[in-house]
Amino acid sequence: MESYDILKFAHIGIGALALLTFWTSGLTRKGSRVHTISGKVYLLAMTGILLSAAGMLGGFAERHHPVAAAFLGYLLVITGTSVWCSWRAVRDKRDWTAYTGPVYKVLMVLNGLSGLAIAYIGLFVTTQMQLVITAFSVIGIANAISMWRFAKASPADPRWWLKQHFGAMIGNGVATHIAFLSIGLPKLLPMLSGPVLQNLAWLGPLTLSVIAGIYLNRKYMPVRKTGR
Question: Count of domains in the chain?
C-alpha cells in the first residue's frame, strides 16, 4: 500500500471521529465538561485531518487535475484558519492582542490571496465544479476582510472571544460535513452519488452555516440595550 493510500484511510478514519465529536460538542451544554472534552477531541481530530490532507496534496496533484489540487490547498487554508481561531479564541479570551498577533495576520493574508486565486480559477480557468469553486472563493476573501476589520481595534464587548469561537466552529462544521456528504455518504449509499448530490454536499452546509451563524449570534450575542 502506498503512502498516499495510508494517509487517505487515516484521513477518512479521523474524519469519522471529527463528525462524532462535532455533534457531541454541539448538542451538549456550553461550558460543560462533556462539551469541553469533546470540543478538544474534535479540534485534535481536525488537526489530524489537516495534516493528513497536507500529506496527500502532492499525491492528489499527481492523480487528479491540478485545479482540484489547488482547490484542496485552498480548503486547507480556510479550514486551518477556522481550527486555529476556534482554539485560540478560548485560549486568548482575555488577551485580544495575543489573539490577533502574527499568526492571525498571516492567516488573514493567506485567506485573501488564496481566495482571489481560487476565484480566478473558478471564473476563468475551469468548467468543472465552477459554481462550487467560485462560491467557496468568497469564504477566503470574506475571512480576510472580517479578520482585518477585527484586528484594527480592540473590541468593546468582552464576549468577543465567544463570537470568534463559535463563528470558527461553524466553519469547522462546514468542512466536516462537506467531507462526509461528498466522500463518505456516496460510499455508504452509492445510489445517492451524482452531480446533484455533489452540489448539495458542497453548497448545502455552506448555506446552513449562514443560518447557524445568525441563530447563534442572536442567542449568545444579543444586542445590549443602553439606557437613555
Answer: 1
Regions of the chain where pLDDT drops below 50: 185-186, 189, 191, 226-228
pTM of the model: 0.83
Residue 48, in any domain of the structure: yes
How far is the C-alpha of 25 from the C-alpha of 39, rounded, in Å? 5
**Domain assignment of residue 55, yes or no:** yes
In a domain, 44, yes or no: yes
In this structure, how many other beta carbons lie within 10 angstroms of the beta carbon of residue 1?
A: 7
Alpha helix positions (H), 28-101: 33-63, 66-91, 96-99
Q: Kindly tell me the burial class for residue 72, based on how many C-beta atoms sit within 10 Å of its own C-beta (0-12, 13-18, 19 or more).
A: middle
Which range marks the domain in which residue 176 is found?
3-220
In terms of phi and psi (left: phi > 0; alpha: psi -120 to 50; beta: otherwise), the region of 149 is: alpha
Among 206, 217, 199, CA closest to 171 = 206
* Residue 74, in any domain of the structure: yes
